[in-house]
Amino acid sequence: MTNLAEDLRQAADAVALLGSSSADYEALPDAAVLAGQKKIAAARRLLDTRAAWMAGTIARRSRPELGHSGLAAQQGFLSPEALI
Question: For residue 9, which of 35, 38, 47 has the smallest C-alpha distance?
Answer without folding.
Answer: 47
